[in-house]
Write a structure and sequence with these properties.
Layout (H helix, E strand, L loop, with lengths): L30 E2 L6 E2 L1 E2 L2 E4 L3 H21 L11 H21 L4 E5 L7 H4 L5 E6 L2 H7 L9 E4 L11 E7 L8 H11 E12 L4 H9 L1 H6 L8 H10 L3 E8 L6 H7 L3 H14 L6 E7 L1
Parallel strand pairs: 4-7, 5-6, 5-8, 6-7, 8-9
Antiparallel strand pairs: 1-2, 3-4, 9-11, 10-11
Length: about 300
């Protein structure tokens, strides 16, 4: 029988080791794969859906040892009181506008905050969907996210390049400033398309780090480049091409945020909203390709 109109079909979780369906991974009872006996561990109620948890932890520990600990440990909520809070608010405002328009055309039954981190987007994103999930590979962040209202049985640890969810599971995937951290970004986008339902929407946010202003900023402050774990430096043309190559239809590409190409100076002056607004106004008119952030609205 087909799916009834308006019926919510929850995602089916798969064994990260062999791909067989697992059942309810959020059950308090121990869950083992019937095919390969993989045991789903849980920490603070968070299912750990990766085949090799130690490998993930070693990778994060190596990054910390290389001087990139703040990227993995610092609470993300600090951003909302930092110098770029006005830019972050504009990013959220843009995404909320896209979701309002989309939800007006078709219901969003299941949504995924992919790379949810501390879950700072989870609460407002959940307002647009009947059921919202969040995943990340960083357990320290997920232990903060799982404490959010309504998130306790919807947060899990997973590897996007071997995502433990069956095909066509979500109406919406929000993939916000995560792709640049993933070595195999094409594989990640392919997995995102696989888990979207036909007609489903991906909202993808990435930094515009391939642009001249960003590259100049790296030259002026090479230390900051050394402490970042970004692996890809996209331009608008680059990221559009990658999305289209894996089969997405790019419905919209939107640039956001402008500032001086020096992070110290940028953080100093953009802490005032009127300055951030002024840079936004001038940037769109004078140097539209040099924005800070890019958002793509893609359809399967």
């Amino acid at each position: 029988m087909g799916q009834a109109a308006g019926e919510i079909v929850l995602p089916r979780f798969l064994c990260p080791q062999c791909g067989v369906e697992l059942g309810d991974v959020f059950s308090p009872e121990e869950r083992r794969c019937a095919a390969c006996a993989f045991r789903v561990e849980a920490v603070d109620g968070i299912p750990l859906l990766v085949a090799d948890r130690q490998k993930v932890e070693r990778w994060i520990d190596e990054a910390r040892a290389a001087g990139r600990a703040p990227w993995y440990d610092r609470p993300q909520a600090d951003q909302w009181v930092g110098p770029h809070r006005h830019h972050l608010a504009k990013r959220r405002q843009y995404v909320e506008g896209v979701l309002t328009a989309y939800a007006g055309r078709r219901p969003i039954r299941t949504a995924l905050d992919l790379g949810c981190g501390d879950g700072m987007h989870y609460g407002w994103l959940a307002r647009f969907a009947s059921v919202t999930y969040g995943s990340d590979y960083n357990l320290a962040r997920l232990r903060r996210a799982v404490r959010l209202p309504g998130a306790a049985d919807r947060i899990f640890l997973a590897d996007i390049c071997r995502y433990p969810v069956a095909d066509a599971a979500f109406d919406l995937v929000f993939f916000n400033h995560v792709l640049e951290h993933i070595p195999d970004d094409v594989r990640a986008l392919t997995e995102v398309r696989r888990i979207l339902r036909p007609g489903g929407m991906l909202i993808l946010g990435v930094p515009n780090e391939g642009a001249f202003f960003w590259q100049l900023a790296f030259r002026l402050q090479p230390r900051l480049r050394a402490t970042s774990d970004h692996l890809h430096f996209y331009t608008a043309a680059d990221i559009r091409q990658k999305c289209e190559e894996v089969g997405f239809r790019v419905r919209e590409l939107h640039a956001l945020g402008w500032g001086p190409p020096h992070w110290g100076l940028d953080a100093l002056v953009r802490r005032w909203k009127w300055v951030d607004d002024l840079f936004e106004l001038l940037g769109r008119r004078v140097c539209p390709s040099q924005a800070t952030s890019l958002y793509l609205v893609c359809e399967k």
